[in-house]
Design brief:
- The protein is α/β, with parallel strands linked by helices.
- It has 19 helices and 17 strands.
- It starts with 8 loop residues before the first strand and ends in a 38-residue tail after the last helix.
- The N terminus is likely disordered.
- The protein binds 5'-O-[(L-methionyl)-sulphamoyl]adenosine.
- The site of 5'-O-[(L-methionyl)-sulphamoyl]adenosine has 21 residues, from strand 1, helix 1, helix 7 and strand 13.
């Protein structure tokens, strides 16, 4: 693994349009970035995690007008009341939150794009063709699909299933076509620069068809960043938005904190994006960077969609579910766990209340939660709440130790390829094995003999379980930050080893860390069972 120690590991989410409140599709990307951030931090790396909001463009402007307020009032309101609070709801520890209406962003965008114009990458022409407001994208005629239902007879966007607008206007254009060959060479030399494989293949075959130049400005409305050399135009929202990843860390600053931040952070290690916006990130964005002579992001990872009724969940199709609807019932940890465990990152997945409730009950309440309460209750009962000194381990105990070493190392490697599901599933299977081991060893029966040998055996079994839970708590901490702190407290990790977030995840596989004498604390149940009608 390339830990690139000198440089900060830089993770980003897309910046979200503030035409509406966040739904679980947005939360999904943000949680994935948060888990990655916490994981790398627990490897001892310096990490920077950026998320934010995309506030310009026609879509946001129209929504504000429909609500009878100015775009600025609209975005300020929605960011304050919905987009910032959702970060707390889903328990995200972003380091920065960029808003594209911020001065720091607008000035850097103007400077960077003026630089590209001066270098000959931007020219004036006129555009005529279809535009999808939902995507905020100029579309090719060949990408459109026939409308159905109320839109029958219209040509529609395949993602939004709504009619496109036909627009004709003067625009400034970016010479994207000039970069096709260099992009192909870049991706052929860096096969991990787009992931998963299906996304990589899509990008390469798209590039091989050749590229057309793209509009970099709009001239029929004014909600955007003014083009400095032609104030009748505002920058096209995607040219404004993509630059956020760089403006937020000081793009273009030649001295001071911005320049220092940029040098230690850029390029991004991973841009997490939904597959709908892959081409913007894997074609236009690197070309914009190449044009300015900047390093390219190490990876763009395109995840799948959360589907409802087989279609991309969205507010505009009235299928949006707010994160709080799920979190009010299951809690933020179970929310984070569920989406990353149940859906292969990169593939589409459907959310269902039944599946969520079943996994919560089986894997969290009856699995991990129950194991922790059984183990700590027995340490209380047989050893007065302190782990005994163990002088001998049996074969079954050593097998658990080996299983954990393999699980931990596989989970840590899975995170290098953003395979959240494999990492979490491996840990969950270890919890199952630990539960099975405890049941088979029957320490409660062994203890009935009350001999020293019997109690030594009981001590070895309970220490094995608590040691297993130590590893599990550390490795699940990035996924479930709250309940693993409670678990850490229960097994005595806090007093014996210090704060959980300071434990090294890349060393979590080392066995035998909890010392004899560690005091456990049987606490509240980690995942309370659901009351029937809540689920
Ligand atoms: N503003 C642009 C992105 C600019 S990035 C420089 C945009 N915004 S968006 O709000 O429409 O969507 C942003 C992201 O939200 C998607 O790429 C994806 O990461 C996430 N999702 C939105 N709906 C989703 C689902 N139904 N399922 C999974 N993720 C979804 O595009």
């Amino acid at each position: 693994m390339d830990t690139n120690r000198g440089k900060t590991y830089y993770v980003t989410t897309p910046i979200y349009y503030v035409n509406d409140a966040p739904h679980i599709g947005h939360a999904y990307t943000t949680v994935a970035g948060d888990v990655l951030t916490r994981w790398h931090r627990m490897r001892g790396e310096s990490v920077w995690y950026l998320t934010g909001t995309d506030e310009h463009g026609q879509k946001v402007m129209n929504t504000a007008a429909a609500n009878g307020v100015s775009p600025q009032v609209w975005v300020d309101q929605l960011v304050e009341q919905a987009w910032l609070p959702v970060l707390d709801t889903i328990d995200v520890v972003n380091d920065d939150f960029i808003r594209t209406t911020q001065e720091r962003h607008m000035v850097r965008v103007q400077n960077y794009l003026a630089g590209l114009k001066d270098a000959g990458h931007i020219y004036k022409d006129s555009y005529e063709g279809p535009y999808c407001l939902g995507c905020e994208a100029f579309m090719g005629e060949d990408e459109l699909v026939p409308g159905i239902g109320e839109f029958e007879g219209h040509l529609c966007c395949p993602t939004h299933s709504k009619p496109v607008e036909m627009i004709k206007e003067e625009n400034w254009f970016f010479r994207l076509a000039d970069f096709a060959e260099r992009l192909i060479a870049h991706y052929e030399a860096n096969p991990d620069a787009v992931a998963p494989r299906s996304a990589y293949n899509e990008v390469l075959s798209f590039l091989k068809m050749g590229l057309k130049d793209v509009s970099v400005s709009r001239s029929t409305f004014d909600w955007g960043i003014p083009v400095p050399w032609d104030p009748e135009h505002v920058f096209y929202v995607w040219f404004d938005a993509l630059l956020n990843y760089a403006t937020a860390v000081g793009l273009g600053d030649t001295d001071g904190a911005g320049a220092e931040k940029f040098a230690s952070t850029w390029p991004a290690d991973v841009h997490l994006v939904g597959k709908d916006i892959l081409r913007f990130h894997a074609v236009i964005w690197p070309a914009m960077l190449m044009a300015g002579g900047l390093a390219l992001p190490k990876q763009v990872f395109a995840h799948g969609w959360l589907l409802v009724g087989g279609e991309k969940m969205s507010k505009s199709k009235l299928t949006g579910i707010a994160p709080s609807q799920i979190i009010d019932v299951f809690g933020s940890d179970a929310f984070r766990y569920y989406f990353l465990r149940a859906i292969q990152f990169g593939a589409d997945g459907s959310f269902s209340w039944e599946d969520m409730a079943a996994r919560y009950n089986n894997e969290l309440a009856n699995g991990l939660g129950n194991l922790a309460s059984r183990a700590t209750a027995m340490v209380d009962r047989y050893f007065g709440g302190a782990l005994p000194q163990v002088s001998e381990y049996a074969e079954a105990d050593l097998q658990i130790a080996h299983l954990w070493q393999r699980t931990a190392s596989a989970a840590d490697s899975a995170m290098d390829t953003l395979d959240f599901s494999a990492a979490i599933t491996g840990i969950k299977e270890f919890v199952d094995a630990l539960n099975g081991y405890l049941t088979e060893q029957e320490p409660w029966k062994v203890a009935k003999a009350e001999t020293d040998a019997a109690m030594a055996r009981v001590g070895a079994v309970l220490t094995t379980v608590c040691e297993g839970l130590r590893g599990v708590a550390v490795m699940l901490h990035p996924v479930m930050p709250k309940s693993t702190v409670a678990l850490w407290q229960q097994i005595g990790g806090q007093t014996a080893l210090g704060a959980i977030e300071l434990q090294r995840i890349d060393q979590a596989g080392v066995w035998g860390v909890l010392p004899a004498g560690t005091t456990t604390n049987k606490g509240e149940s980690l995942f309370p069972r659901l009351v029937e009608d809540e689920a």
